[in-house]
């Protein structure tokens, strides 16, 4: 049920944004590099990361990123994402966008073995390929600095899905 509601919200937001567009002064060829700080809702842990964004068209940009969900309850996760954004300019300084793409997640589990075991710990790694869906927004603070927020849902399978709330500060060039 949670997935259906989320997908419906994303679809409605995308359609509404498509109709809300006015004239747009494009930024084809613009790049940015940013630092990410966030929260993984399902794992209840901090997320750190970096990303690079490049506008391939006036309204379309690619956004590869690498995120790390800090270890909590003996679980840590790396996310390698290849996303795309469809940019909708709200004001000269504010832009919103839907997020869509693919994500590879690498889950590391550390299990503590019972007393008397040889090592005392056992590790397991699971790799999952999934879909990234979400929405975000950003605001230019100066000509070269932008801050933003994003909600992203990494949809893999029932046990490895992850909702994330992310903030970003970046330098445009």
Uncertain stretches: 15-25
Order of helices and strands: HEEEEEEEEE
Q: Give the total of beta strands.
A: 9
The overall average pLDDT, rounded, is: 85
Main β sheet profile: 8 strands, antiparallel, barrel
Oligomeric state of shown chains? single chain
The secondary-structure class comes to: mainly beta
Give the N-to-C terminal Cα separation. 42 Å
Number of separate helices = 1
The proportion of strand residues reads over 45%
Give the CA-based shape.
Answer: elongated
Query: Helix proportion of residues, in percent?
Result: 10-25%
The value of Rg in angstroms is 18 Å
The strand line-up of the biggest sheet is: 1-2-3-4-6-7-8-9
Entry keywords:
173 residues; mainly beta; eight-stranded antiparallel barrel; 1 helix
Structure description:
This protein has one helix at 2-19; strands at 31-40, 45-55, 60-72, 75-86, 88-89, 94-112, 121-140, 145-155, 162-172. It is mostly beta strands and 173 residues long. The protein contains 1 helix and 9 strands. The termini are far apart. An 8-stranded antiparallel barrel has the order 1-2-3-4-6-7-8-9.
Write the layout of secondary structure elements.
Layout: H1 2-19, E1 31-40, E2 45-55, E3 60-72, E4 75-86, E5 88-89, E6 94-112, E7 121-140, E8 145-155, E9 162-172
Antiparallel strand pairs: 1-2, 1-9, 2-3, 3-4, 4-6, 5-6, 6-7, 7-8, 8-9
Question: What's the quick description here?
Answer:
The protein is built from one helix and nine strands; from the N terminus they run H-E-E-E-E-E-E-E-E-E. It has one helix spanning 2-19; strands spanning 31-40, 45-55, 60-72, 75-86, 88-89, 94-112, 121-140, 145-155, 162-172.
């Amino acid at each position: 049920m949670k997935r259906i509601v989320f997908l419906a919200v994303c679809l409605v937001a995308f359609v509404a944004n498509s109709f809300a567009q006015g004239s747009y002064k494009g930024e084809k060829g613009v790049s940015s590099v940013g630092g990410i700080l966030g929260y993984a809702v399902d794992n209840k842990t901090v997320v750190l990361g970096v990303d690079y964004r490049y506008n391939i068209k006036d309204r379309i940009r690619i956004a590869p990123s690498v995120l790390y969900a800090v270890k909590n309850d003996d679980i840590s996760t790396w996310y390698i994402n290849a996303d795309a954004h469809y940019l909708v300019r709200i004001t000269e300084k504010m832009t919103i966008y839907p997020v869509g793409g693919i994500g590879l997640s690498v889950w590391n589990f550390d299990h503590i073995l019972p007393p008397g075991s040889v090592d005392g710990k056992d590790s397991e790694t699971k790799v999952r390929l999934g879909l990234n869906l979400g929405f975000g927004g950003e605001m230019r603070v100066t000509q070269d600095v932008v801050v933003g927020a994003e909600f992203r849902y990494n949809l893999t399978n029932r046990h490895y899905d992850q909702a994330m709330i992310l903030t970003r500060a970046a330098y445009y060039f």
